[in-house]
Amino acid sequence: MTKLNVSNFGFQLHKIKGFYLLILFLFSISISISSGAKLNNTRCPIEPTELSVEKFSATYDGDTIYFCCKECVDIFEASPKLFLQSIEDIKTKQQSFDNKPLSQKAFDSIWNFFFYLPGTSIIIIAGLILFILRKKIFVSSKINRGFKNAVIGLLFFDICYSQHLSSKNKKIEILENEIHSTTFLEYGTPLIPAISRQQPSLKKTYYRGNDERNPALYNGGNYRTAEFTIDLCNNLNEPANYDELINSKDLYLRVRIMKSPNTAKHFWEKDKMGNIYATSNSEKFHWYKDQITDAVYLNNIGDNQWEFKYPLEEFILGEDDQIIRGIVYLCEKRKSSNNMVIGGRFHYAFQFDLKLFSKKFDTTSDLWMGPLYRKRSLRIWEIPEKEWLSSDPIPINEKKNEIKNPTLLGIDK
Q: Among 24, 238, 280, 352, which lies 20 to 30 A Cα-Cα from 149?
């Protein structure tokens, strides 16, 4: 038996590690000496769902702030005081980093950057093995060569696998953006709609407005496209009320959707309505990754009217006095160019907080709905939420000539 010859391989490994460490040292120094006058805001303070870009910036009170687009810069410069809270939040996060000792910032930068690079973990493991073998174990030159080949092979595999993961994550990111736009950025995981501002009620009506604006449209585009009625009922469609005995195991969330007059037929075609379903599943990739076993599809109940009833038994907590609390989502199957389902787009959420005492609803029991999907082109300051989903009536389109221009309608190409 001969002692493991590690001198040549160890020297090469030493050079590789030295190169990595040099890069990491320079990187950590660059992080540490970065200018404190530049706020490292990764998201736009005007439109938090958008990433900030270095070329769009403004200076306020000695600080450089980055935005996602020129429009946001103009909005900020016109009324900077409206966004002071967003700026303060960014400063608070940055100060937590700036207040760290220089040694800790350097260590954090090296740690994060070092383990991000493909192959570094293999080099560390190989170095540890070499150290152990050099101290305690004697092996043949054949094993020595095999060990070197194994390390090289593992390095190659690690680099290829890292590239594969990076490519896969990029595809998932593109797919998520295509299906959901800003949904998960705005409403979190799981998706939770805005809290109801209305008085508690077991029946509510909401109005869906148009989210396109153009002088060629009626009222500039501010008109009603649909009406939602949400309530509770049993399997016989008998409505539930506060003062009645309730069988919680025969309780359904009922949602009725009615097309508003003079709205484009494109969005209400049979094949499109057939892709709308209700579910309690809030995962990002319905059908593509997750089979939706609880999907309840819309049922046409009359001229330009649809309905679904979702059973609430799965949400029941307790035996005698019960709480029924949860969220049901209204989603749309999204398909690729070859007609394959690639996911479900979340459009609305229906939330309920129900309390049953002696089999009767407490008067604080409530249900409500909220929007979940917004195109990135729909700026929240340009079209307030109350103009595209509201419990207050939105004007009906009185222009009877149907608009068919896809650009005016905002139809996805």
A: 24
